[in-house]
Amino acid sequence: MKPTLALFLLASAASLNAQPTPSGELHFKAPGSWISDKPSSSMRVAQYRLPKAEGDAEDASLVVYYFGASQGGSAQANIDRWISQIQQPDGSASKDKAKTANTTVNGLKVSTVDVSGTYTAEMAPGSGTFHKDPDYRLRAAIVETPKGNYYVKLVGPAGTIARWDQAYADFLSSLEFR
Questions:
Q1: Exposure of 174 by Cβ count < 10 A (0-12 exposed, 13-18 middle, 19+ buried)?
Q2: Fold of the domain built from segment(s) 41-177
Q3: Average pLDDT over residues 59-79
Q4: What is the rounded (10 degree) CA torsion for 99, 104, 110, 115?
Q5: Is residue 30 within 8 Å of residue 171, measured between CB atoms?
Q6: Looking at beta carbons, which pairs linking 46-50 to residues 24 or more positions away fall under 8 Å?
Q7: 140 to each of 1, 12, 17, 82, 94, how far by Cα in Å?
Q8: How are beta strands 60-66 and 148-157 bridged, if at all?
Q9: Are 100 and 113 in contact (CB under 8 A)?
Q10: Nearest by Cα to 154 from 24, 25, 26, 30
């Protein structure tokens, strides 16, 4: 068999077995009281500021990320990484204090984490500078869609996050892939 014919047959067989790229996007409804910001990178689908609660120094931030199909890591790897961004004031393991759950929202598998303490994430990837924000809370979710995972990360002062607990729950309940 000629090499070009063999390559054509292999390419044809591969295209028959290839799965079509799923169309659709993740849709959600953010409360009108959240402030929509222009996403600061192409990996951010949406970016919001949640106005601070009385007594807190700053607003909370909620970002929805999408890195592409098969990109961004597994749900568990992200949950573990997010938990590691919070340190406990008494030195105990944040993993022991974190609340994780798995649920289904409108047919989508959603894995969540909720953990409080001192927020120590890197300020920008590769910057070498880190947050050191005490009394913070991180709530996050990985949403599995036919197009790949979306990542939701909410972080800010604990009082402000508590102020928005129901709105965040409603936001997650609105997730829909279409």
A1: middle
A2: Protein Transport Mog1p; Chain A (3.40.1000)
A3: 93
A4: -20
A5: yes
A6: 50/154, 50/156, 50/160, 50/161, 50/163, 50/164, 50/167
A7: 55, 42, 35, 8, 15
A8: antiparallel
A9: yes
A10: 30
Beta strand 60-66 with 99-105: parallel, antiparallel or unpaired?
A: unpaired
Residue (of 176, 141, 143) closest to 24 by Cα position = 176
Structure tokens at 70: 């098969």
Residue 27: Cβ-neighbour burial (10 angstroms; 0-12, 13-18, 19+) = exposed
Smallest CA-to-CA distance from 51 within 153, 159, 147 is with 159
**What is the tens place of the pLDDT at every residue in 94-131?**
999 999 999 999 999 999 999 999 999 998 888 999 99
High-pLDDT (> 70) share of the chain, %: 87
Q: Is 93 exposed, middle or buried (0-12, 13-18, 19+ CB in 10 A)?
A: exposed
- Beta strand extents in the chain (DSSP E only): 26-27, 35-37, 44-50, 60-66, 86-87, 99-105, 108-119, 133-145, 148-157, 176-177
pTM: 0.85
- Which amino acid type is present at position 168? Y
Q: Summarize the confidence of residues 29-42 as an average pLDDT.
A: 95
Structure tokens at 168: 């965040």
Alpha-carbon span 142 to 101, nearest angstrom = 11
